[in-house]
Amino acid sequence: MIKIEPAALAQYIDHTLLAADASREQIATLCREAQAHGFYSVCVNSGQVPYAAQLLEGEKVKVCAVVGFPLGAGLTASKAFEAAQAIAAGAGEIDMVLNIGALKEGLLEVVRDDIDAVKQACGTVPLKVILETCLLDDDQKTRACEICRELNVAFVKTSTGFSRSGATVEDVALMRRVVGAEIGVKASGGVRDYATAVAMIEAGATRLGTSSGIAIVTGAQATGSGY
After folding, report:
1. pLDDT band at residue 225, thresholds of 50, 70 and 90?
2. Contact 79, 66 (CB under 8 A)
3. Which CATH number fits domain 6-218: 3.20.20.70, 3.40.120.10, 3.40.50.2300, 3.40.50.720?
């Protein structure tokens, strides 16, 4: 295991709250926690972006919005519009779900065009592409990463945290091998303690999506279940 102090993991973390019933009070708490612990961003649904951006105005913590979440099965134009609107509202990063059904069917041009449209809508704002690895075989994961590498997206991301399972060390390592050193890899879903976080980083992750960031950076054990 690499030697890294728990507190030093803060800048890897997108502090995440994506529940459908998340309240403004919970979003405010998320933002306060991110500021207090120095997390890289808060990751929220696009409808929560204006409030989170207001709370974090002038702070280092970025606001990250999910797009086409959690299924990835919406119209490409809708995903691109959502991304553009989220950025206009204050999002500094976008995490989109790719078209999983098209990928599994081998419709790679559909997948490519979907990602590219959102990337164009993002302009200079970094785009992360969620693969939902638990629904894919290794060949499909590889194909998705190859497309993302060719389009030069900012990150590939393992999971929404809303499907059968989340990140695995094996998937992070596969994604890193395919995208190379220039593109980020975000491990998300089930990263809930220090040891798991370090294992993901050792495998090649450069960002962690988690609702257990405080437990990770304090070396505590997360309680309950969640993202």
Report:
1. low
2. no
3. 3.20.20.70
Query: Any catalytic annotation for residue 113?
Result: no
Which residue of the set 95, 114, 171, 193 is catalytic? 95
Name residues whose C-beta falls within 8 Å of residue 129's C-beta, 6 or more positions apart in sequence: 95, 96, 98, 115, 144, 148, 153, 155, 156, 157
3-state SS string for 64-125: EEEECCCCCCCCHHHHHHHHHHHHHCCCCEEEEECCHHHHHHCCHHHHHHHHHHHHHHHCCC
Domain chopping of the chain, boundaries: 6-218
Q: Which residue has the higher pLDDT, 59 or 223?
A: 59
Annotated catalytic residue, options 79, 114, 186, 193: 186
60 catalytic? Reply is no
Q: Which of 119, 157, 171, 193 is catalytic?
A: 157
Residue pLDDT, tens place only, 100-149: 999 999 999 999 999 999 999 999 999 999 999 999 999 999 999 999 99
Q: Measured between alpha carbons, how far is 18 from 166 in angstroms, rounded to an integer?
A: 14
- Note the pLDDT tens digit of each residue in 165-211: 999 999 999 999 999 999 999 999 999 999 999 999 999 999 999 99
Active site residue 137: no
